[in-house]
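Appendix B. Extra example for self-study. Work through it before the problem class; the solution is given directly after the inputs so you can check yourself.
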Amino acid sequence: MSDSPLRDAIAIVGVGESAYSRRSAVPVPTLMVEAVRDAIADAGIDVDEVDGIVSDAAVAPHLLPADELAANLGLSDRVFTAQMSVGGAGSVGAPLLAAQAIATGAAKTVVCYFGVDWGSAPGGPYRFHGTDPYKASLEMPFGFYGQPVYFAAVARRYMHRYGLTPEDLADVAISTRAWAALHPGAMKRTPLTRADYLGSPMIADPLRVLDCCLLTDGAAAFVMTSTARARDCRHRPVSVAGVSFSGAAMSGHSYLAQHEDYLATPAQVTGPRALGMAGIRPEDVDFAEIYDCFTISCLLQAEDLGFAPKGAGAALFADGQAAPGGSLPINTHGGLLSHSYVLGINHVVEAVAQLRGGCGDRQVPGAEVGLVSGYAGWEHASLVLTA
Amino acid sequence: MSAPDDSAAGPWVPDTTWPVLQEFWAAARTGHLVFPRCTACGRYQWYPQAMCPACRAMAFAWDEVAPDGYVFSHTTLRRSFVPGADGQQARHIVLVKFLHVPGVTLVTNVREDVEPRVDLRARIAFDEVGPGVSLPVSELYEV
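Solution. Structure tokens for the complete assembly:
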């Protein structure tokens, strides 16, 4: 049992999500404000009680800075604002920021928000890589540009090292889609077969279209407050039992080409640390929501979190453990591959929904412990939530 | 270099005047492969940065290295995401590590359309792709 003062110090008490689409008719910053409004209403908390705002440091504040969000909400005394990491690691790690603020009394109620317009914006998710002069000089002239290309090289290395097959990757996509078929809000709900996967166009060998996450315009938010205050909120509180962030000695400039072995993620650090903080073993986790920007990245993290030995993650998907009805459900909303590509805040929202119960056809029976894995390359966050 | 949303057709060419990599491109023009090396501890640092993360010294010198390496990983691009580049294509991309330059990976294309494989040997050569701009390219061969 850990003695972290942050263990179970806060709870997630409200969640809000926009509709997810390839091209939103409503500007994404407006979706972000709506998602925050809905999350606060879901908590049953007065908007004026919100005194802190957290987010990732790269994507959300670019579309809607925290002060603009506060201005929309009419927050008169915002005492705490913090941002960390890029995308997935930021949204999943945000409870670490909120817990420190709330446990020390610096803030009382903190909202985490996110939004992305990469479904419709020119250049989509690739564009920010192109603004990096190292990549523009040393990678783009050779066509090494864009996340599918980067992760193709990761997958190829993994195949060489561990004998991964196209069918192994197919099983990740199929399992994830089976969950999405059960979620009315998922963007892609038609079940997949191995034949569908193998017929999917190759983007960058060995990755096909169906290995890649979706492209989405959308927004989501969640509200955190002290465990004591959480008892008076509308829903059964979901406790932040463990949370951990780690950034390795790499940078965004160099990680995608210069990572020394390609097959390890900092989930190796954050997974055990978050679970240790919560006093929970990997085998006690009821379900996991893992940042699946690609099939291969989901496998890497599943292994690094301790659910399978290195090189053996595909077995989780081949034998149905990760699928509906399996012993370790993974990405119960359909993940980034089939639900939406809102960079992992949808994974947090789904974990909360599962732990509240009432997820209908996709409800994991007896869900009491969920692990959320937020990836951002050289940075990673793990979040252990309990009912 | 052009902005990433520039729709100009044709291959993406690096800006060889960016000071951080100026010496790399100057050497490439004359057919030489150089990487920055910490003058205090001898560690190669690629991509360049201000401080050596091993010894925390802040002085580097460009060191000519043997262009001999091997394919660490690879992909064959069917659809380029590079702005202005042709959409449908089949271009081999290799990530090359070096026999005598620890810690360095170089991204290149492949000469003469040889099918890449992990652990194939790679020798770096240079192709002039524009006035005063030469890009490294890998010649792949069996050990």
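Self-check: Residues 7-141 of chain B form one domain. If your reasoning did not lead you there, revisit section 3.
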